[in-house]
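Handoff note, outgoing to incoming analyst
You'll be picking up this chain. Sequence as last confirmed:
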Amino acid sequence: MTNFIKKISPHNLSQVVFWLLFLLALALAGYGAYLNQLKTLRENLTFEGTKLLAPPVKAAAYLVGDLDSGQILLAKNEKVHFYPASLSKLMTAAVVLDNFSLTDLISVSDYAVSAEGTEGNLEAGEIFTVLDLLKVMLINSSNDAAIAFEEAFMKQGKNLVDLMNEKAQQLGMYNSAFFGSTGLDRKGNFTTALDLFLLARHLYFGYPVLQEITTLPQATVFSQNKSMVHELANTNLLLTSYPNLVLGKTGTTPFAKECLLTVFEIPQENDTMKVTIIVLNSEDRFGDTVKLYDWVQNNY
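Most recent structure output, in case you need it:
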């Protein structure tokens, strides 16, 4: 063997080294392809390990979860930070309900009606009950209404946004932070699909009034002092097609793209399955939600 090695010329030795490196590169490339296939396979499995293919959705992140058990049925990028857009208003509403009664009165200021984004057609000087202003905020997705709530907290010496962050920590939403009540991109709110799953469970079981409000396709509210009429149309287009949709909120901004949180009560043979579907950073939030809903129907 020693004599054989001695007989190898420098030129032949370089060829041997070349082919060894070439074969090593092929082996590494093949192993990389194997790992990529394994990753794809794992993404197409449910958390129970059953071979249920995930539907093709356009959302950068999504989560399908069982509210009763807390089990995640299907998810993608559920721990990645995204802008929530007006899904932030669900946390806003929860904190409002923690601190005010539905019959308390909230006034709308010049500053509130000048809020960036969706206006809600409110006028300065109008006074609403908390219930009606919640409808304006959640059905029409009014930023004006959210700012009016912020000012109502300030009058009590409280900070609505601080309370939103405190509540997030209490719920275990450790990958979320709120810097505004409306969800505008420039405020910098961020969250994850997994954290929103925790919020959805909390809202479904603890705030039935939010189910009543967010499932109204249309509503009419009146200001208490000016008797002005406001006709509201829900931004959630799935309401008319899914009567078992019991809680929901849309969100859209340039950076957040299309977002949607929904809760469905799906009849089973001996029970009702309570499922939340959350899609973030989507190009078709309603289409993605329908695909994920059908996935649940077909596999559970």
